[in-house]
Amino acid sequence: MATKVEICGVNTSELPVLSNKEMRELFKKVRDGNEEARRRIIGGNLRLVLSVIQRFNNRGENVDDLFQVGCIGLMKAIDNFDLEQNVRFSTYAVPMIIGEIRRYLRDNNPIRVSRSLRDTAYKALQVKENMLNEKSKEPSVSEIAGELGVTREEIVFAMDAIQDPISLFEPIYHDGGDPIFVMDQLSDEKSDENWLEGVALREALERLSEREKMILTMRFFRGKTQMEVADSIGISQAQVSRLEKAALKNLKRYVKEV
């Protein structure tokens, strides 16, 4: 993927790059319904889509398909971006592009999931979204289960069923020597207690904001330094440090609530 020059007929080596000042001026025109400005913003951020889809290069998916799906996420980000918020567009857009690609991969998952499980999972996601909007806080698994009239275990199993499968040979850490794969982290002990702790941690992670999840993933699953994370998402190292501490504090609290 990294060596592919042309994607969907687009020569990636010739993609334009817009300055922050140019972006702001174009977004002002987009507010007034200027379609040409919108097209320029899309073209000026295709490199961002390209960088995001490289995270999914081990899924065996067609790179052209992922690029097109990523562009859909980019356009949604452009249409919903608030210029008044003190945040870079790339910081806002990356989670939306990733989310669009994950939805595509989930819906095209070769592993067949029963309709009842899938329906329960989607209802749970809808209830989660509604309760979040009403209370301005993430609901617990128990609260979602109570709203749907099902058991907590049914919600957990349904949500697990629609998660993307991961290869046992996917590298999770690499320090220049031999990489550590997922299978290296698997234990032979089949403890129910360990399994439940894993479920609790996974549910707690899902309750974090997209930015918090992104920072913790880059720091603790990809081995990035705070400075590398800061450069990647366009904020200062001090902001990364502050957000990381808050995310870990929230994670600890959510684990207790699940």
Describe what this molecule looks like in 3D.
By secondary structure, this protein is mostly helical. It is 63% helix and 3% strand. The protein contains twelve helices and four strands. The protein has helices at residues 20-31, 35-44, 46-53, 63-80, 89-107, 115-135, 141-148, 152-161, 192-206, 210-221, 226-233, 237-257, and strands spanning 6-7, 10-11, 171-173, 180-181. The strands form two sheets. The protein has a two-stranded antiparallel ribbon with strand order 1-2. Strand 1 (6-7) and strand 2 form a beta hairpin. Helix 6 (115-135) crosses helix 8. It is globular. It starts with 5 loop residues before the first strand and ends with a helix. The model is unreliable at 1-5 and 187-196 (pLDDT under 50).
Using brief descriptors, characterize the structure shown.
two-stranded antiparallel ribbon, mainly alpha, 4 strands, globular, 258 residues
Give a concise summary.
The protein has 258 residues and is mainly α. The protein has helices at residues 20-31, 35-44, 46-53, 63-80, 89-107, 115-135, 141-148, 152-161, 192-206, 210-221, 226-233, 237-257; strands at 6-7, 10-11, 171-173, 180-181.
Average pLDDT level: 77
Shape: globular
How far apart the termini lie comes to 39 Å
Strand content: under 5%
Unreliably modeled segments? 1-5, 187-196
Oligomer kind: single chain
Strand order of the largest sheet: 1-2
Element pattern in H and E:
EEHHHHHHHHEEHHHH
- What is the percent of helical residues? 55-70%
Topology:
Layout lengths: L5 E2 L2 E2 L8 H12 L3 H10 L1 H8 L9 H18 L8 H19 L7 H21 L5 H8 L3 H10 L9 E3 L6 E2 L10 H15 L3 H12 L4 H8 L3 H21 L1
Antiparallel strand pairs: 1-2, 3-4
Helix pairs in contact: 1-2, 3-4, 3-5, 4-5, 6-7, 6-8, 7-8, 9-12, 10-12, 11-12
